[in-house]
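Handout for the seminar on molecular recognition.
Each group receives one record of this type.
Step one: identify the two inputs.
Step two: read the structure output and locate the region that could contact zinc ion.
Step three: write two sentences on what you found, then compare them with the reference statements printed after the record.
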Amino acid sequence: MTDTDDLARRNAQFAAGEFEAGLSINPSGNMMVVCCVDPRVDPTRVLGLEQGEAAVIRNVGGRITPTTLRTMAMLGKVGAANKDGHRAGDWNLVILHHTDCGMTDLASFPELLADYFEIPAHELDAKAVSDPIASVRVDVGVIEQEIRANGFLVSGLVYDVSTGLVETVVAPTPVRSE
Ligand SMILES: [Zn+2]
């Protein structure tokens, strides 16, 4: 077990070294990442994110569920309350799924997954929980249906836990504002 004293020591090193004071509450990269809780898929490492560069939502599978959408709506309010820190330019929502995802193990618990996606269990096939290439396309589609905003792109990536490489499955696509 990693113990908390060790974490406190690592934090002291961080605070004395790479910590950057004065970062904005608004992500400097105009970017949000939605990704899985899997410890191998830390977007800071996998995508080389800098401090303060991206807002990150992590959940099981990195899925766009109704809860994810509600979280994004709340973050939109936070952004609106901190307009001064906004950078000009488009926003990029990056959905990051990965191979060997634990979602696959949940396929045998359809009632849990149905609750998670807030859909009837007989519609679960449409969520492609066992195929990250398909699931990231599904979730880009959910964003395209649910989000109406100008200057907003969505992209879908899949991380291969056996190679460390990310594949761009859906290139940055503008969300329609009507
Ligand atoms: Zn996962």
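Reference statements: Helices lie at 4-16, 43-46, 66-81, 110-117, 132-146. The beta strands are 31-36, 54-59, 91-98, 152-159, 166-174.
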